[in-house]
Specification:
heterodimer; A: 3-stranded antiparallel beta sheet; 8 strands; B: 197 residues; mainly beta; Sulfite Oxidase, Chain A, domain 2; 6-stranded mixed beta sheet; 11 strands
Chain lengths: 84, 197
Amino acid sequence: MHLDGNVLAGPLLELFREDMTTATARCASCGDVSVLATAMVYDAAPGWCVRCHVCGDVLLTFVRAGDRLRIDLRGVTALELPAG
Amino acid sequence: MSIFTRGFSGRGRDNNPALPPGQYLTEDFPVLSAGPTPNVDTDTWEFTITTETGKVHRWNWEQLMALPTEDIHTDIHCVTRWSKLGTTWRGVSLDTLFADVETEYDYVMEHSYGGYTTNAPYEDLRDGKAWIAHTFEGEPLDPEHGGPARLLVPHLYFWKSAKWIRGLTMMAEDDPGFWEQNGYHIYGDPWQEQRYW
């Protein structure tokens, strides 16, 4: 069971101060380039695990570790968003 | 674990000595997963232990079922703060599976079907502290809870009990697994409330 990537708007806003759901991310595993809103978000886990909607590999994870918000971008080789 | 507390579970987290700090009691069994549930067929299921020499010890499902089984009555504690008391499992002790494994290494990486990993010290998987569990409350373990077989390491937070267990690899160092790389504690003792690091 997963959610769609639009739920990333909130936590990514904390980090980037932008709505990142319209940013594109390139998957390190399969090379697909898609807006983050299309990603699959597994929120029923210790953290959030965000997976590529094409190959299912992990794009990024969020962990709210006490008073810190930690993001791991292991599966993203490029992020692109419209210049403000 | 205390049988006495089970019937007086209450709502509070403050007065139940079976609950580690910061945990609340649940009667449900929440499903937590970082990805889709893999379809693992017992016809092709395999469990391996790999040591530093490259030697691979293998068991198929039939071989696992032929090993001595144990009934395990235990409490489980999830890092997302729920605890479930008095659960009953059946499985094979890792002591049985490690009986013929020779290793000098002190740490283990757990690998799952689906790609999940989590790390643990070798000593935490020995001496009656860890099992491969295939039965929960008398029924075959449901796939969403890790069936056909998961690791059960109930004295640590439950993310250390890898669902859909596929193999163990001995490690010289305590390398972090999936959630451990992303902010969760390298060891994860619920009584020390070792959630993050």
